[in-house]
């Protein structure tokens, strides 16, 4: 099945509100678990979270690693506004800074970073080289890099089945969002090619659930 692009930035306030209010506890806590398994040496320091949205993953990382600060970057004002509210209410919020800016133009304040993460940004990018280029530009030598995203299924029937399985009880705006994202996502083979083209041949790509892949390694 061909990739079908969706808008890069999540600018619609209704979409951003529904996204920020959704319960992503299971995949986002899994994100932190998978990161921790792959980088057992992680203790603290500054972490860059690319396409942070409302910052749920940023906050979960900050909570798991009390010696770290997280800098999140996102180009959607409505997502960041929701994130500011979440950060104010969260015990780890004072160690999370969210900043408005579109990649690749925006520069993160703490570059070069020892750790760069990103969840569900890759499938939004019309040109995936933006993500790998920013990682190479803003990561320190030896930096930990951990990217998680959706995988594009092979058929439209499989897309419908995943939406039914994982988003049946979500509001319509979120179900549509999830479906669009599955069509916009890359296959593990495509991500492998992107990494090889970027010079990140040593990175690994793994499918970790019925809908998620991770790409990770050290710069
Ligand atoms: C599906 S959301 C994921 C948010 C967050 N990482 C999470 O896991 O909840 C994707 C986010 O990437 C942002 N985004 C997409 N393209 C971007 C770009 N070129 N620069 C900055 N942010 C971008 C969107 O605005 C959106 O908030």
Automatic annotation (TrEMBL):
Keywords: Methyltransferase, S-adenosyl-L-methionine, Transferase. It holds the Pfam family Methyltransf_25. It comes from the Bacteria. Residues 47-129 form the Methyltransferase domain. InterPro entries: Methyltransf_25 (IPR041698), SAM-dependent_MTases_sf (IPR029063). Coiled coil: none annotated. The keyword Membrane does not apply. GO terms for biological process: methylation. PANTHER family: METHYLTRANSFERASE, UBIQUINONE BIOSYNTHESIS O-METHYLTRANSFERASE, MITOCHONDRIAL. The keyword Transmembrane helix does not apply. This is Methyltransferase type 12. One of its GO terms (molecular function) is methyltransferase activity.
